[in-house]
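Supplementary Text 2. Reproducibility record for the structural model of the 179-residue chain.

All settings were left at their defaults, and a single model was retained for analysis rather than an ensemble. We include the record here because the model underlies the residue-level annotations in Supplementary Table 4.
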Amino acid sequence: MVRTDEMAGKYVTLKSAALEDALFTSKLRADEQLIKFVHKVDCTLEGQMKYIQSQREKPDDFYFIIRSLRGESLGTIALYHINDGSGELGRWLSYGNAAENLESVMLLHDMAYEELGLDMVYTCTDNDNERVKNFWKHFGGDECFVEELPDLTVSKNIIKKSTYSELIRPRIADMLRYK
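Retained model, structure tokens:
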């Protein structure tokens, strides 16, 4: 699915991935440090162009490029598997700093709850990925549990709209010095 406008924050913007972003996403997806705990994909330029084109046609899938306010591409983040009031946050790979990364997650949650009217957003993180599991632990949420999938064990974090609106968003806005 394509969003025609950008979501803008104090530190980053999120724009729908387009074919011209394939070179950046191919480099990002080939970075061994960033992809250590994510499933492997075709990270060639052609593979990423095909992926972006097919993703743009999916009605339950938003895929964004995280950009600095200077216009530099920093990473990717997505909201997909949107169904029955919930969606999964993932494809989050970023070279950004702590404020940029935190704001990218906040902007995506804002869209999920305020614009799409979702009741819940969840994440599935490789259970061996301590860094990202620690991020989600500090981000907050209603539930966090380990789930066994056929080829992977994941830590699943669930954040309900009410928890995000009442507790998480105000805390993040304060951390990011939003007024």
